[in-house]
Design brief:
The protein is an alpha/beta fold. It contains nine helices and eight strands.
Length: 214
Amino acid sequence: MRDRLADRRLYLCTGDRPDLESFIAACIRGGVDIVQLRDKDLDARPLLERARLALRVCRGLGVPFLLNDRPDLALEVGADGVHVGQDDAPPELCRRILGPDAVIGFSTHAPGEWDAASENAADYLSAGPVVATPTKPGRTGTGLDYLRHAAASPETRPWFVTGGATPASVPGMAAAGARRFVVVRWLTQSTEPEAAARALRTAIDTALDRSVSS
């Protein structure tokens, strides 16, 4: 699973919602190729139930499923991995809990955090949010310079940009060095998530194809 991360381009991060099953399926049909369930409000038992549902959808459609913050619950559910942040369980502990084959992601928000993560046990990093986002209350946007810092670093693991991915913003992010994109609001606030995912995936593929040919 870890070896396939480099080929992933569009990463959905979503909270729980009444239509979780059909929403995730629609996003995947539109081009999402990795899914994370991130819900800060659910207690452990209901989160396990919703995570199992999301995992079934992802497995049925052939994309990895990750759980946010909780390696213990990821283990119980049988998720493909976990994503943790600066204040969560460290990647090394996640690795001990989940084993060598699990996917572990780690958030960074500033050059110092990015550089400090260079030797941790994560399989991929995230960089952002480029613009302020309600999913990270109180955190200001990093701007595109942070993506340039990440792209210019010697880091060889895949990394995903967070915060503000839309068809309009993707070309600028790609020009700054981003190759993989986390999406939240563009899909979670859409009334037609499959079409919205397809539009975003098309923008990503077009921007990356241009960067390769230039």
